[in-house]
Amino acid sequence: MKSLFQLSKLALLFVFILFIACACASNTTQESPTPKDQGGNTTPEEEEEKEPIKIGVLASMTGALESYGQQTTRGFELGIDYATDGTGEVAGRKIEIIIEDTETKPEVAVQKATKLLEEDGVDFLVGSSSSGDTLAVIGLAEEYEKIMIVEPAVADSITGSEFNPYIFRTARNSSQDAVAGAAAIAGEGVKIATLAPDYSFGWDGVAAFKEAAEALGAEIVLEEYADPAATDFTANIQKIVDADPDYLFVVWAGANSPWQQIADMKLQEKGIKISTGAPDIPALSLMEPLVGMEGFSVYYHELPDNEINNWLVEEHKKRFDGNVPDLFTPGGMSAAIAIVEALEKAEGDTDANKLIEIMEGMSFETPKGTMTFRPEDHQALQTLYAIRLEKKEGVPYPVPVLIRELGPEETAPPIRN
């Protein structure tokens, strides 16, 4: 009897131990994530791969450069659609675009960029409309180790004296503009005056133009700078008249352009020819007195002849009430294409140091043809256009008509970093 009783106790103890073991196994199963091939759940690493790629776009959505900000952001959104075949994702990760208005104020640009980096946790920065805003922000890209695509700011110093390895620029810089502008008018013994806004965009533009023009034998007889917010250029233009140049080369950006006063003060009748970069469409509408002028263009929708530009023009018309893309729309698109292409090569990895290795020397197709990030300074080498302003039936503004393309090698600027 005693032996039987002991056996019963042992049996009960065995059942109890078995019960505890099963319970522990059950808890372990609930607490540990199950791989996809066993239970359909995802591991933390797999969840991380599905996190969206966040891109913060800094642009002047209000103020004097509002139209530039709108052009860039529209182009960027179209570029993401084009580069991802409408899926809005790359390497299995959705792309999230966060647009912030810098108000064309450097201190606001810094606040908005900091917010994008710290609160939104963006993987890339893009921008901005103003060189002043951009110069205030590019240090943050290095501090937070995030790639920043500069578009459309042009100051040479961005990829020159203020360069850091996290900066890449799809926008052309002042020296590229200068090479194109000088090629149009400079020559041995030609006297040229310049007019530009009194800030980094204007200073860099004139310095680069002066270097290119003097290399071709021209003489710069006056460098005139005006308040960037000016609406009355009478005093500035009178100084130019007094200098008696053969040409006035104008570097300008913004809605408060000097074209009407240049016409009112009859510079061309005084023997001073005008040359400049063809601006955006609203500013072209003020250049009626300059029909026949020869200069250069960064972009006009009829100048490039390639499939991507054809897509951009047609899609832009569909989405925006029949309106064509303007001066900085293709730049925004190019920035988006560059980011998507780099991420595809990186298989969705947003580590900036890995992306730098990929992007240095990377070529990619854009509405302006092939662009290449020059390894030394990350400036995109690109096509510009020698043009003449002409009247065109049915178009209410002078139209930039192609004289010839200025290829990426021809417009390659000096390395200044």
From TrEMBL:
Per UniProt, the keywords (alphabetical) are:
Signal
Q: What organism does the record attribute this protein to?
A: Bacillus oleivorans
List where Polar residues composition bias occurs. Answer: 28-41
Q: Which InterPro entries match?
A: BCAA_transport (IPR051010), Leu-bd (IPR028081), Peripla_BP_I (IPR028082)
Q: Give the source's domain of life in one word.
A: Bacteria
- Write down the PANTHER family for this protein, in alphabetical order: LEUCINE-SPECIFIC-BINDING PROTEIN (PTHR30483), PERIPLASMIC BINDING PROTEIN OF ABC TRANSPORTER FOR NATURAL AMINO ACIDS (PTHR30483:SF6)
Q: What is this protein called?
A: Amino acid/amide ABC transporter substrate-binding protein (HAAT family)
PROSITE patterns in UniProt: PROKAR_LIPOPROTEIN
